[in-house]
Design brief:
The protein is α/β, with parallel strands linked by helices. About 35% of the residues lie in helices and about 25% in strands. The strands form two sheets. It has a seven-stranded parallel sheet with strand order 3-2-1-4-5-6-12, with helices on both faces.
């Protein structure tokens, strides 16, 4: 049985993770951490039945008391780097779904993982469909001269562009280093009208709108044809298969992994 701690347990994703851990046959929830509702049974709060695990606000104390095998963290970009450093320091493996880490932080965590021989899997997206879209986009990049990314999320998402869009652009860049072939010299009449531009000249457009959960579209173009790849999240439960896949993988590994595509 894999002993799991969930940090950010009362967030929209955190609640889904708690229920997934409680319902899986090979995982056991040993602690749930959040800054709200300390002492309340997490099972009752997430819509499941009471499970005997009460919410704790002190993450370090919860780790010391329960000694989890793996921590699943879906919290905030402002705290995630500090959290993972804490897990690494205690040699606790982690599965991280919070986006917002920059390249330097990711590299530092990779080095820390290697130094402490502690597994860590960070994924911008745990939806298997979204990860397949990224993999297909990488493959398509061999054959198309132009591409742009549109990502659409709910209006409570704090980082832009999304980690999924950034990861998608990185994968595409492994096949092509310029996706603006033949474009004319442009003048933006409104700053940002053409979106952010990655190092390999992919324009990325971020939409924030109530009603969306998470969607992404990659548009490819070449002479005489357009290819569109799209993925739409209808419910956050779609992420749980990927989260459990990551948990089961990293339980047996002491390596650093960035992106679910590396284990699919």
């Amino acid at each position: 049985m894999i002993k799991i701690g969930v940090v950010g347990a009362l967030g929209k994703m955190g609640k889904e993770v708690v229920n997934a851990v409680l319902n899986a046959e090979d995982t056991k929830l040993v602690f749930a951490s959040d800054i709200f509702n300390e002492g309340i049974d997490i099972g009752a709060v997430t819509g499941s039945k009471p499970c005997g695990v009460c919410i704790k606000s002190d993450i370090e104390k919860a780790i010391d008391e329960t000694n989890p095998d793996i921590i699943i963290d879906f919290t905030q970009p402002s705290v995630i780097y500090e959290h993972v450093c804490l897990y690494m320091g205690k040699k606790i493996k982690s599965v991280i779904g919070t986006t917002g880490l920059n390249d330097e932080q990711i590299n530092n965590l990779k080095l820390l993982s290697e130094k402490n021989s502690t597994g860590c899997l960070i994924a911008p997206n745990f939806s298997t469909g979204a990860v397949l879209l990224m993999m297909f986009a990488k493959q398509a990049s061999k054959y198309f001269s132009n591409a742009e990314i549109i990502e659409l999320h709910h209006n409570k998402k704090k980082d832009a562009p999304s980690g999924t869009a950034i990861k998608t652009a990185q994968l595409m860049g492994e096949q092509n280093n310029d996706f603006t072939k033949g474009n004319c010299l442009e003048t933006e009449l409104l700053k940002g009208a053409r979106g952010a531009v990655t190092s390999n000249n992919i324009h990325v457009h971020s939409v924030r709108m109530p009603g969306y959960i998470a969607s992404q579209e990659v548009i490819f173009g070449s002479d005489g044809q357009i290819l569109k790849l799209a993925h739409h999240t209808m419910d956050r439960s779609c992420y749980m298969a990927g989260v459990l896949l990551a948990v089961r993988y990293i339980y047996d590994k002491n390596e650093f992994v960035y992106g679910l595509d590396n284990i699919m």
